[in-house]
Amino acid sequence: MTQNDAPLGAFEEQVLLAVMRTRENAYGMRVRQEIEAVTGRDVAIGAVYSTLDRLEAKALVRSGRSSIDGSSRRMFEVAPAGAHALAQTKLMRDRLWRGVDLKPLLAAY
Amino acid sequence: MLLRSLLHDAERDEVEADIRGEYAMRCDRDGVESANAWIWRQASASAPASLKRSWWRGWTGFESQAHMHRPGGVMLEQWIQDARFAVRRLMKRPLFATLAIVTLALGVGGTAAVYSLVRTLLLEPLPYGNSSTLAAFWNPFDWSQAEHLFLQDNMPAGFSDIAAYTQMDLTFTAPDGGAPQSTSMIVSSANLFGVLDVQPLFGQVFGPGDDAQGAEPKVVLSYGLWRTLGEDRSLIGRPLEIGGEPHTIIGVMPPGFWFPDPEARVWVNAPFDPENRSGNYAMIGRLADGYTFGNMAAPLAQMGTRLRERFDYPPDWDKTRNPVLTPIADSVAGTVKPMLLATLAAMALILLIACSNVAALMLGQVDSRSTELAVRSALGANRRQLMQQLVMETVILGVAAGLLGSLLAAGSFSVLKHSLALGALLDNAQLDWSVFTGAMGISLLAALVVAAVPAISLWRGDLRDSLTHSRTSGISGRGGRTENALVIFEVALAVLLVAGAALLIRTVDNLRSIDPGVTVEQVAVLDIITEYTTARPERARMLSDIIPGLQALPGVENAALTQQLPLRHGGNNWGFHVEGIERGNQSTTAFRIVTPGYLSTLGIDIRQGRDFTPADAVSEEPLVIINEATRDAFFGPVDPIGRMVASGTGGLARVIGVAGNAAEAGLTAGPTPARYMLLSHVPSTALQQTVVIRTREGVDPASVFDAARSTIERVAPIVAVSNTTTMQDVFDRAVGPALQLKSLLVILGGLALVLGAVGVYGVVSHFVGKRRREWSIRMALGLRPWQLIGRIVARGGMLVAAGTVIGIIASLAVMRVLSTFLYDVTPADRPSLMIAMAILLAAGMLAALIPAWRASRADPATVLREQ
């Protein structure tokens, strides 16, 4: 298993998905806001940039500069390898979920 | 601010703008307080992630696609990258890196070791309360109990209290029995600990009245001795037999306490007698409030007057004439201080030489990298970044040198501590972490000094210019003036050290050539102590009984006993006069109580008359042998043999012989009048004696120690051997600190020489490297190899000559610091300076010869093709 095939970490997965969800608006702060909005948790901007760098180093995302509202920003997009990693991670998760029945436990919750 | 500093240059502004935007939005939506809390949460949670990111980027060199054309990351990131770059560059030049690291490490290690010694010995506070107001009196061990009691009753102005103590070696027996062991003991007035302002760890110290007549004998133990005795608190109140007499243990001092030196392990009280005028006490005083060492002259004069009125000193013995108080710190570390400081100065010189050496090497490197640096500069790197890299390179060299240096320092620490005559302070010198922190600190400081030189040169130079020159192979490149100056500087420093070493070598030679009047080879020396409870006649008999047993040992030629060995200073001077001859100016001679065979054992010649025989020891008539100095001082033209002289013990003694002069008062004191009498004829028998044993030719004197020790234990159970040595060692000690300092300076001088030569070699090599093309053309045009060698060596020679001249001038100015160690040599001793100059010139020329020879062997065609 190469490094790129390794399953994504939970936060990496969240960041990648947030980049996907924000599409053309994917810059650091937007990605952070997206994760916060969906998960309802506080997310540190430093952690987002740090993760984006790692993902870029693994060629799962690409970054470039483009202008939004007159200011130049570092924009991210998910690379094909990133899409593949997301798919792999989802597959692995689905496999894990297969055969798991939470109902009895949830009934007691 | 915190967030900004952790962000990459390229994204700093946009992220800040985003955060401001969201902050404003949150202010409107949730209120200022909540927005502030959010900002704090963001900053605190982002900091660790951002630091981790910088660290990772530094190590992986990752640069985002978006930032490719906007370099300039976070500081930490750049440092890490610079460090990696520097390590890579250093690995590519292993010779340079090794040379620089080893050179620096030598300087750093030595300096750190000496610094650590100086710190523990001179800078650490003494274990006494407020030691800056503690004063040691002049004429130590010359004060009497009577004088101390008088001063107690008439406390002089300027002092709040004065204590008296004397030091002696005695035997003690542990409370649970066992063989007597010897220890250094302090007998003191009851207020000693009060004057020192110290408290016991537990138990108590002497109280008022403990030095009164009939007071119970008490003893305070050092922490070390208490541990040796079993570390048991119930020892308090139990008796400890000291010198055969039981003393009640009343207290234990805390660890780290020592007075007056770390060898003293027990302190006992003494009943002070107002009639006892024998002067063997030292005194210390606590200055009263408002008094300093500066304003004690008047109180001391007043005290002198009172003492003189009361004690009526004879003019020759008037100790009140030159009263001097010494701060206690100087008094306890007085003799080692100049030596330690001289060593530290010598080490610092080595460090400076090492620094300039590495700086010159670095300069050479910068110069040979000028093309690379110019290209980088043309591609957008600014001077600050180039300098940052340079500094990083030296810092890495510094860290490596610091690590190696601390190993060297730790290794050389014990060598150093034993090679300096630290005496009783030896135990205080402990290796600790300060060696490591010292080495690292000194090393980084040195690295920065080293970096400064090429950095300045880089700052001043025009980098683009060198790009143009590189195409012409740098014929008109930098003149290397700074490099030359550095080499001249280090040669000058090396001359200083070599001259210092030469002066001390001459001093030691002079001291060694002094005839001590005794034969130092083949003589074993055992210092012994007897219990004082044994009655005097019994003690004298037992001591005399030791000798035949020792004489019978295999390998032993002769053995004898004396109360005081030559070359050790001290000993008693007793009054002397010859019956029928008027007293002259001289009224005392050194007085030595010996057994028959002493003079021949030590190789002291009999010049007139005869030596003592065993029969003399049992005869009733007191006999005396005088030395030539005594004969010359007291007898004039009269033949002394057969004359009656004052025995010093009340009666008269007959002179039977005249011995050659032995160095009774120390090596450099010159002939001292002395007389020798037999143990059996003198009623006073000191507790401390010295056994001398002459071994047969070819038998190592040190080999008889064990046999002698067991013989003494068997024949005289009341005697303990406190120290074993050889007469050669006694002589070496008498030569004094110059001997130790000499060995050290010779090593350091040698080191300076090697470093200086390496410096000359480096600079000349670099010089040769730069001009290879020029010379190849000249050689192709007919310049002879030897002419080329001549030119290059002359160049090196000029640097060395300039450095030597400056070094000699500097030596004349600073060698005065060594004057306390010199004997019969002036600090401006011409032969020493000439030797230093010649050695440096020779070493420098030799160092220049290697690159010169190499250059002369190069094939011009190859060189021209290469470039």
Provide a descriptive summary of the structure in words:
The complex is a heterodimer of chains A (109) and B (867). Chain A is α+β, with helices and mostly antiparallel strands. Chain A has helices spanning 10-22, 28-39, 45-57, 80-97, 103-107; strands at residues 61-68, 71-78. In chain A, helix 2 (28-39) packs across helix 3. The longest helix of chain A is centred in the C-terminal third of the chain and has 18 residues, at 80-97. The radius of gyration of chain A is 16 Å and the shape is globular. The model of chain A has no long low-confidence stretch (mean pLDDT 87). Chain B has 867 residues and is an alpha+beta fold. In chain B, the strands form 3 sheets. In chain B, strands 13, 14, 15, 16, 17, 18 and 19 form a 7-stranded mixed beta sheet that branches. In chain B, helix 5 (94-123) packs across helix 14 (433-460), helix 16 packs across helix 25 (785-814) and helix 25 runs antiparallel to helix 26 (830-857). The longest helix of chain B is centred in the middle third of the chain and has 37 residues, at 383-419. Chain B is globular, with a radius of gyration of 37 Å.
